[in-house]
Amino acid sequence: MAPTLLLVALVAVVGSVAAVPRSVPAEWSLHRRADPDALIPLKFSLAQSNLEKLETFLLDIADPRSPNYGQHWSPAQVKETFRPSTETVDTVHAWLTHDAGIHAHKIRLSSNGDILQLNVTIAEAESLLRAEYYVYSNDEDGSMRVGCHGGYTLPEHVSKHVDFVWPTVYFGGPRSISSRSESISPSSTFGRESGASTIPIGNLADLALSGCDTAVTLDCLRDLYNFDFTPVSGRVNSIAVAEFGDNVYRASDLNLFFNSYRPDQVNNTPTLISVEGGNPNVAGDVGEPSLDIELVMGLLGPKQNLSLYQVAQPLASLDPTDELLAALDGSYCSVSPVNSEGITDCGDKPRTNVISISYHFNPDLNEPSIAPVVQRQCTEIGKLVLTGITIIASSGDGGVAYQQSHECLLANGTLVAGNPNGSFVGQLPASCPFITAVGATSVAPGASTEQVEESTTDFPSGGGFSNNFARPAWQDAAVRNYLDHFVPNYAASVFNRSGRAYPDVSANGWPLVIAQGGGFVLSGGTSASAPIFASVIAAVNDARIAAGKRTVGFINPALYSDLFAHAFNDVVVGSNPGCGTQGFPAAPGWDPVSGLGTPNFVKLRDAFLALP
């Protein structure tokens, strides 16, 4: 009888000789010992070359004072520079064949040279890794996966050449969020950033008498950010939004919105880029895609095409972040798919100049079973922006806590929901330093668009300091100013003062007028702020392309430089409470609520046009 093939957890970490044992996560139950004859596709993610130079490489092309500003790398150059060394491949291969007795014909190297894969039985994997494999059941969705929460072991001379082994102790991946009252609950297993309630609008005509403090339309956004824009670069420029699983849009909702606010976009839809069979024409939640697509297409108009990365709902063994990254640069791909769970879109999808992501996937915890996973994902993002892509993500809607359920870290290392007193917890991908993270603002009650907004009070905009990534040099001066003059007197254990600080910028996040589900609603969250800011950067790229220059790519070093200090509206009112505290207060200059502030498009465009 042929061996059974099991669903598997995606990755497991190995930071030293042995992976640190951990308890079974709260949402998972230990079901039974795994069948020793069941097959699993065991994959060794190999340590890449030159990663210690990644930030230097990026600054060389992204620092506005660098003579090589804008000289983005080709994908081939990136691939060869970071390919694992021959020594790394040979060391792991020799251990598998000579020491572990695995036949060489069973071992295959991926095209990127970053994964060694072998199909083995559970019994063989347990012997190889000195681990015990179990089948686990997810209490929330009933899915099953196999792993070894008790940890695994690699020889010391091998472990330094391996980032992590799949499948073993990692139980992370996409996380659900808790929806607030009156909001539409996402049915996917990973979180969209919809922090504020979604409120139906009874009569659009009433909005004509409303101010932008009570109903934010496209005209409000144009006024707030000096966004007078008509594309001139045609189809050469590109921007995309990423949507995941059964978060889908309806063309009828787009037309409903465009009929009222952008008639020249009626009957236009985004260009589909399907990832792993992602299909927007299925039943699902329309909240997030409606928000993203209507804002971008509404702000940019019909002369600028919008692409849609529709990433399929992954099975239990896959992470949607990895599916998207694999489609763009070939990372995380199986050597050959062993079952329906293998990633098959491997570097074959078109890349756009700007990508907006309004989802979160993992808490920013420096926890042994999570840290190497999210660090690897951030590295892949860094390699993509090295090629000239700008990746923008929402900063979260939980303030200094993680996601809408307001999870905080207790002293015993437990992540607990409900805003308990504890350490602050950021979220990924926003805290990755190669992402431009966007917080949320609102027009103050009774204020006009001529006044600077405040940090939103309808939900706490996400922001803080990473537990996984060190603060990069390009933001050090701005962050130190905040830490020296404005930070509350929290204990050292509350947040990581030396971590990458975010958000970088902000934009309106509530209450935006959106069409979804056949009617108009007031909606928002940092999930709205991200596509708004992404539209601004797409417009900047349009101007640079028209001037015969390259796209801006990795924008963070430029944004934090003195050359761009005048390009933002400084937000000084608001805070982002959580974890039993008031969080961080907004302040003059950069702060962990609104970042550098909201954009002034004309000033931002002109500052980028002044660069090579």
Number of strand elements? 29
Kindly report the CATH topology of the largest domain.
Rossmann fold
**CATH superfamily grouping of the largest domain:** Peptidase S8/S53 domain
- Contiguous helical run count: 15
Structural class: alpha+beta
- Give me the oligomer status: single chain
Shape category: globular
Strand content: 15-25%
Name the poorly predicted regions: 1-21, 173-190, 336-340
Give the termini separation. Answer: 65 Å
Tell me about the largest β-sheet: 8 strands, mixed
Work out the count of structural domains: 2
CATH architectural category of the largest domain: 3-Layer(aba) Sandwich
Instruction: Report the helical percentage.
Output: 10-25%
Describe, in plain words, how this protein is organized in 3D.
The structure is a single chain. The protein has 612 residues and is an alpha+beta fold. The protein folds into 2 domains: 12-48 and 83-166, no CATH class; 191-609, Rossmann fold, CATH 3.40.50. The strands form 9 sheets. Strands 11, 12, 13, 14, 17, 21, 22 and 25 form an 8-stranded mixed beta sheet that branches. A 5-stranded antiparallel beta sheet has the order 1-8-3-5-4, sandwiched between helices. Helix 9 (287-300) packs parallel to helix 13 (526-546) and helix 10 (320-329) runs parallel beside helix 11 (371-385). It is globular and about 75 Å long. The protein starts with 11 loop residues before the first strand and ends with a helix. Residues 1-21, 173-190 and 336-340 have low confidence and may be disordered.
